[in-house]
């Protein structure tokens, strides 16, 4: 097996992980290395076509099998999802993106679907035969999830959906959509429900979008889309809880992806600093360059530990939402800094169009916006601070 390059093995050896985690992520790392020629050959297609092809690749190789797993194991628990995303992001942005959106959307069905819904959708998603998307955001409802307006009105044994969804990853290739819609059981967040909507139903349409880091991305329209009642996920009125549950679980995995991208940038910078001759020595011999590389190493270690902490809490049935927000905030903010500093170390070579660092620079930026923007995460974390603990402490004056 090839050497593991997408992770710091010393962190994987900590008791936060089991030997099985290390074994599986090493296998994925080797698989990614073997797939490089195939992945490169896909670059002639547009990002939506690439996403389709990558889902098939991932599915056929068994990397989406966690969607049909009955219980959390070192190939399907939160730690493995974070580790796998780190590896996929290290090797290929679109491979990570396809894996993450399929996993997130499929997990909603896995967690809240009926047996019939699970049997129908999950094997196809796990094979990479079908693509899924998670449609929550609207043009006027992003951070403010309770402002969702897409309506689902009960008519006989169906719900009729009308409205739009915005910025939906895999929205232009999805075969099934998880849609959060307003059913009106109560005001604001209390009046939302989740549905599985087959994308081929009459009235569903999309407009493909371009992103600074190309990917399958679209706005969706729903015009009198008749969805059978049995396609509701969980109970009516539970849509907000379902959306929050899944976002809390998955935002730590965005931390994993951020580490993958920034680890690659740090590796590129270190290699360049070693090879670049300057002032009759190497760039690496300059103290400020050493300091920049050292800070990258510190940030990568801290991001890895925070992500592991969040996933460990989730896997052990502990309260984890705060740690998930902490991991995503820190790892994604640090990734921006690491990639930027890596570009600085390369000098002009760092800003060449089409270079790896240019791609990384584009790829890490959206991570601070979706699945909880940095600002909303800070608000969440601040709301968990224990004011009572210090309120009456006279010694702190
Ligand atoms: C690449 C990409 C993929 C995406 N994929 C999906 C998807 O698959 N499904 C989906 O449903 N959505 C998706 N989104 C949408 C994403 O979830 C939203 O963009 C996000 O929730 C932010 O909403 P917004 O863009 O409307 O910004 P707004 O909510 O308008 O926020 C604008 C700015 O205000 C800040 N802000 C918000 N609240 C506060 C506050 N309390 N204090 C201070 N500042 C605040 C935000 O952090 C942000 O910087 C995706 C977005 C991107 C970029």
Automatic annotation (TrEMBL):
Domain spans labelled Acyl-CoA dehydrogenase/oxidase C-terminal: 237-384
GO MF term list: acyl-CoA dehydrogenase activity; flavin adenine dinucleotide binding
InterPro entries tied to this protein: Acyl-CoA_DH_CS, Acyl-CoA_Oxase/DH_mid-dom, Acyl-CoA_Oxase/DH_mid-dom_sf, AcylCo_DH-like_C, AcylCo_DH/oxidase_C, AcylCoA_DH/ox_N, AcylCoA_DH/ox_N_sf, AcylCoA_DH/oxidase_NM_dom_sf
Cofactor: FAD
Source superkingdom: Bacteria
Pfam assignment, any one: Acyl-CoA_dh_M
Domain Acyl-CoA dehydrogenase/oxidase N-terminal: 51-129
UniProt keyword list: FAD, Flavoprotein, Oxidoreductase
Segments forming domain Acyl-CoA oxidase/dehydrogenase middle: 133-225
Gene3D superfamilies for this protein: Acyl-CoA dehydrogenase/oxidase, N-terminal domain, Butyryl-CoA Dehydrogenase, subunit A, domain 2, Butyryl-CoA Dehydrogenase, subunit A, domain 3
Family to which this protein belongs: Belongs to the acyl-CoA dehydrogenase family.
Name assigned to this protein: Acyl-CoA dehydrogenase domain protein
């Amino acid at each position: 097996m090839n050497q593991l390059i997408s992770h710091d093995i010393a962190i994987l050896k900590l008791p936060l992980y089991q030997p099985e985690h290390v074994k599986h992520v090493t296998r994925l790392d080797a698989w990614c290395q073997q797939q490089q020629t195939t992945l490169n050959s896909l670059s002639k297609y547009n990002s939506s076509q690439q996403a389709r092809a990558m889902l098939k690749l991932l599915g056929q190789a068994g990397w989406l099998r966690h969607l049909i797993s009955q219980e959390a194991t070192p190939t399907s628990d939160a730690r493995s999802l974070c580790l796998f995303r780190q590896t996929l992001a290290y090797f290929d942005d679109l491979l990570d993106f396809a894996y993450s959106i399929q996993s997130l959307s499929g997990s909603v069905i896995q967690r809240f679907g009926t047996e019939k819904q699970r049997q129908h959708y999950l094997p196809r998603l796990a094979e990479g035969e079908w693509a899924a998307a998670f449609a929550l955001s609207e043009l006027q409802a992003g951070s403010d999830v309770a402002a969702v307006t897409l309506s689902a009105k009960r008519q006989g044994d169906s719900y009729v959906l009308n409205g739009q969804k915005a910025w939906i990853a895999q929205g232009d290739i999805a075969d099934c959509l998880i849609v959060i819609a307003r059913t009106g059981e109560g005001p604001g967040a209390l009046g939302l429900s989740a549905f599985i909507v087959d994308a081929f139903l009459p009235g569903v349409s999309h407009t493909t979008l371009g992103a600074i880091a190309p990917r399958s991305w679209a706005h969706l329209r729903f015009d009198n889309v008749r969805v059978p009642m049995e396609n509701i996920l969980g109970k009516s009125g539970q849509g907000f809880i379902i959306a929050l549950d899944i976002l809390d679980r998955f935002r730590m995995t965005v931390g994993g992806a951020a580490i993958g991208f920034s680890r690659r940038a740090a590796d590129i910078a270190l290699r360049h600093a070693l090879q670049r001759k300057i002032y009759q020595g190497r760039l690496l011999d300059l103290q400020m360059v050493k300091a920049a590389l050292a800070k990258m190493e510190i940030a990568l270690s801290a991001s890895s530990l925070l992500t592991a902490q969040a996933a460990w809490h989730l896997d052990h049935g502990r309260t984890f939402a705060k740690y998930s927000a902490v991991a995503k905030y820190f790892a994604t903010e640090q990734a921006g800094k690491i990639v930027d500093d890596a570009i600085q170390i390369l000098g002009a070579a760092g800003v060449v169009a089409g270079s790896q660092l240019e791609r990384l620079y584009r790829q890490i930026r959206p991570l601070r916006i979706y699945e909880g923007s940095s600002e909303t995460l800070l608000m969440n974390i601040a709301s968990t601070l224990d004011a009572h603990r210090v309120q009456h402490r006279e010694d702190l004056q």
